[in-house]
Amino acid sequence: MGLAFFWGATGAAALLVGAVVAYVGSPSRNLIAIVMALGAGLLIGSVAFELIEDALDVAEVGKVGGYTLLGAAVFTLGDWYLDRRGGGDRKDSEGAQEEGSPLAIVFGSVLDGIPESFVLGLTVLQGGVSVGLLVGVMLSNLPEGMSSSAGLRIAGWPKGRVFGMWLVVMLVSGASAAAGYHFLSDPSLSGSAAVAQGFAAGALLAMVADTLLPEAYEVEGVFTGSWVAIGFALSLILTSV
Known about the structure:
The chain is mainly alpha-helical and 241 residues long.
């Protein structure tokens, strides 16, 4: 479980690295958008070739589809609630967070990290962390850390508060990965593997669609699809390593 916590926190550490980059340098919106799109493709590949494939080994297609829909619905409802509470602009790079709720922004950032970290914990249990998934998580978190931190800086957030927020997200992500590991390592819950994998897949897909692709498309436009496809192909390559 400790190893799962480590990898969950490591994936989320890219958020903190992104914050440092945002405060030290000035990353362009194009670079942020490209990395977001690549990360989205990698995560979609991980869902297709690891989570769903494994779930289908122990459950019927229809049931896995139902679990996936449930996971997407739960994430979407949480995201919708936090948006209404003032966390909707948490990834804006131009300071829109000034009009939002600090607490909602923090909770929104935590919510974004839970599905991917939970999945990392599942892969650790299956023999070692998935390299493709870990790279996808880091590539999705790095631009999020850069974009959000740049906007929070413009909105007047002190540096200590921004870095503290990402540290909290790292700890929660580590705990989420440990929870994923524990969930399937418990013999009494072994029959629920497909439920956990399908649910996590749906939440991860919803997160990608809600938080990564819109930001990437806003900057890259029609080229977004090609960057996502490149990320997806990279996921295939890393899966075969």
